[in-house]
Amino acid sequence: MASISRQNVTRSGASGRGGAVAAARAESAQAGIAMIEAGGNAIDAAVAAAFVAGVIEPMETTLAGTGFLLVNLPEGGGTHAVEFGPRGPAKAHAQMFEIDRSRALDRGLGVSVVVGDANIQGILAAGVPSTIPALIAALARFGKLSLAQVMAPAIRAAHDGFDADSYFALSALASLPALRKDPGTRKTFLVNGDPPVAAHSGTASYGPHPRIRQEALGRSLEIIAAKGAAAFQSGEIAKDLMATVRDLGGILSAEDLRAVSPQVTQPRRLSFRGFDIWAPSAPSGGLTELQMLTIWQALHPETPPLEDDARRLRGLAEVSWHAFADRYHWLGDPDFVAVPETGLLSKEYAATIAATIRKGEAPPRLGPDDGLPWEVFASRAVHDPWRYEGGGKKAPAWRPEGSTEPKAGTTHVSAMDGQGMAVTITHTAASMFGSQVVCERTGFLFDATMGWFNARPGAANSIAGGKRPLANMGPLLITRGGKSVAAIGAPGGRRIVNAMVQVALDITERGMDAAAAVQAPRIDASGSTLLASERLAAVAKELEPTCGKAALVPEQHQGFGYELARPVVVVRNGAGEISAATDPFVNGHAMSL
Q: What confidence tens digit (pLDDT) does each residue in 304-337 have?
């Protein structure tokens, strides 16, 4: 393990020249920094941290889940993506869930609530797990250390356990009925059927937090460390996973698992004020983030507003509402449906939206009685980006009855080494504790990929076998002249998108380091109500005529919420100093050498 005496360690920010790692938990950051100390690079660090996160953050993610990885290589090696986003099993179909018409809302979901919450709870919610094959593929392509060395911290974490702190206990309490229902989750994450809670919150005066040990998962990780991804995809672990799926009546198949083949691809690139901003190409938050930045650049082509005044925040909110109206209507898996990707990112299209904002036209923001935006805009197109797509393509007609919106359940790792390699990884269980089903044979928690889909037929994002749902994950890399500037990402559901755009602006336009960027007050305009940091209360009041009354987020008390997402950031300045930071109001950790 890393020598703490040589490191800068803090929950708010850290800086150095030898490398830096920022992650949601201290154990993840420690695992990453230990890899750099052992002679590894940023990919070794990020993959080690991601493996640990998959063990100690079951309320957020799982190693039987999905995600996205971006890496920028030093010395002109280019920027690459390893995309392992969510995908439905081959047997999935648009009518597989029965719509529950007795409920309008359910724990952050849209109107497409299904009977028994089967799209987010239980084995039918599980998608095709690809995190382990992707992390191993990334390590083999870009890393320096052995798989066994990089996985060792995660194996120790599984056997030794992690502290069931107050955040874990509250997360377990929020999912308690489902965790009690499944024998695997009940045995793994609860104590006699209840959330594990230490006396008086586990303070030093009253004793330590209970520890969550995952012996079966530890044994599975040992096998994978020795035999590679094949053990997970087609070997003994795969057979045990499939046995559990069959026992529970799931549709995930051995063929689905064997077919996972992570590819190193070219990510999307946006030229922005002298920087290059890179995002995943697969269905994710990336396209919307780049669309927002494109509109922002069209709105302020020369000198953007730098102070958090009414002009800047109104512009950010309206850019978001326009982009999200497009997102809710047009986006889906381009392998299955037509998506106007070129049109959405065209300068001409951005200019038309920027012009409407300058004229003071009302943004596509719904009122309190108008319905939910992911429901309304799934059926109604506000704009026509197909006019800018080229090739005479015609817009498809989407007429769904409604749309779903998955809950939070995501983690992130950002890393950079002294040579300038930068890595950003977001990976997820798709919902809190995934599908709330643990395979007792292997210790793996199944994810809830099916919750990302619109559960009703007729939408761009409706279910189909082998289709990729529209995820909210949106990690970004920022480079300049091919050199790494920043690796950023966040958990936080759909609010990831607004957070990533604002952090990117803080770094590129306002010249902030990692700590300043995560500490800057943020807003979110992905839904009908504008959310704003309590530090922006006075400005939010000025915005009411256009943006409506804002819901103020009391950041000091938001350690258990995702209202403004939770950025995880590493930044390298022109002098070669690397700074790392996580949102100061949550339980993140940054470490550097």
A: 999 999 999 999 999 999 999 999 999 999 999 9
Annotate 253-289 with DSSP letters as a single string. Answer: -HHHHHT----EEPPEEEEETTEEEEE-SSSSSHHHH
Q: What are phi and psi of 387, to 5 degrees?
A: -60, -20
Predicted local distance difference test score (pLDDT) of residue 107: 38
User: Do 159 and 218 contact (CB within 8 A), yes or no?
Assistant: yes
Summarize pLDDT for 499-556 with one digit per residue, the tens.
999 999 999 999 999 999 999 999 999 989 999 999 999 999 999 999 999 999 987 6
Surface-to-core class of residue 4, CB atoms within 10 Å of its CB (0-12 exposed, 13-18 middle, 19+ buried)? exposed
**What is the residue-wise DSSP string for 138-200?**
HHHHH--S-HHHHHHHHHHHHHH-EE--HHHHHHHHHTHHHHHHSHHHHHHH-BTTB----GG
Looking at residue 426, its amino acid is: T
Residues of the chain with pLDDT under 70: 1-12, 103-112, 198-207, 399, 401-409, 556-560
Q: Write the single-letter amino acid at 571.
A: V
Q: What is the pLDDT of residue 1?
A: 28
For residue 75, how many other CB atoms are within 10 A of its CB?
9
In the block, which residue shows the tokens 């007429």?
Answer: 399
Is the C-alpha dihedral spanning 311, 312, 316, 322 positive or negative? positive
Nearest to residue 257, comparing CAs of 462, 56, 97, 446? Answer: 446
Taking Cα atoms as reference points, which of 282, 311, 156, 262 lies closest to residue 218?
Answer: 156
Integer angstrom CA distances of residue 574 from 77, 346, 353, 481, 483: 19, 31, 34, 12, 10
Q: What does the alpha-carbon distance between residue 563 and residue 550 come to, in Å, rounded to a whole number?
A: 12
Q: What is the pLDDT of residue 498?
A: 97
**Residue 471 in 3-state DSSP?**
coil
| Dist CA 284 CA 472 (whole Å) | 5
Return the pLDDT at 7. 44
| Spatial CB neighbours of 349, under 8 Å, sequence gap ≥ 6 | 343, 383, 385, 387, 388
